């Protein structure tokens, strides 16, 4: 792999069989597979000054490995995704746990047996738990809508507590909505876990953190003789989408183009901007061994921020006498502002707008959209990888 800052003078796209926009999971997976399976010479164009997309991590001034764009917790049930990524990293045994700070008391999330006793007291909490077990069985995730549908006042009391103290205020902060604007269908899916497992992803077969960090995983994935990476390049400066083809450096490009960026920005927002939520992340290094007992604490009933992440609790890094934490403040995304679009706002009007952008490239046979931004959807990391594997399957089949 060659990594260069900026495009070389006289960059010739005709040298490359494929141009891939974005060096995150979507782009890196496609780049590696096209180079490896098809012998394609691939150029990866990345606007940022680093590879890894939002999963990028680095060592801060205090010597702590931190995730620049918020905590990334690897978990999946997808065996193919796990097998593919495991080619490029070893994994730690990390199991993610989340606590909610509810009026000063830390309770496991999803709300479970322990949470019930902390919220309602040992005796009453145990009684409510036994009723949940008798009604639904153990080790089950039960949406609060199901609790309400039983028309049982005690089960409704549990549902109301979880709604008010775990979901409502946190969601208002996260999405910038008032209670009446929150979709009831989302409310109804908020789960209670009938059991003692306090892992955040209790059903994920594969969990952990990359042993040497995410950036090293990407370095390994992109390390191929046929892959060249160009950082700090805004692809809009070299790529123009027409009605039936794509121009690169002013000439029609006949190779494959894999695009993982935002479609609306590629077209200059001329139909309007696709709405997102973004995050203001504030890092702080503290002179203590440990700030909080788990990797993530959600502040569901207090504070302006949504959660605090402590990275050492996730990576297992040993750094006596210092730790770095990060507070997250959610806010509306402003296009072309340098902010990062994190969460697509998947409402009908926005999806219709996305489809109008997508229709513009539907007839261009060598232009392929993949990933969270290009597909305008929410993906966990494994979902992005699965989508990229599927797309690259199609391209490999077409070229072999």
Automatic annotation (TrEMBL):
Keyword Calcium recorded: no
Enzyme class: isomerase
Keywords of the record: FAD, Flavoprotein, Isomerase
Domain of life: Bacteria
InterPro entries (alphabetical): UDP-GALP_mutase, UDP-GalPyranose_mutase_C
Residue ranges annotated for the UDP-galactopyranose mutase C-terminal domain, each copy included: 166-378
SUPFAM superfamilies: FAD-linked reductases, C-terminal domain, Nucleotide-binding domain
EC number per UniProt: 5.4.99.9
Swiss-Prot/TrEMBL cofactor(s): FAD
GO MF annotations in UniProt: UDP-galactopyranose mutase activity
Similarity comment: Belongs to the UDP-galactopyranose/dTDP-fucopyranose mutase family.
Protein name: UDP-galactopyranose mutase
Lineage, uppermost ranks: Bacteria, Bacillati, Actinomycetota, Coriobacteriia, Coriobacteriales
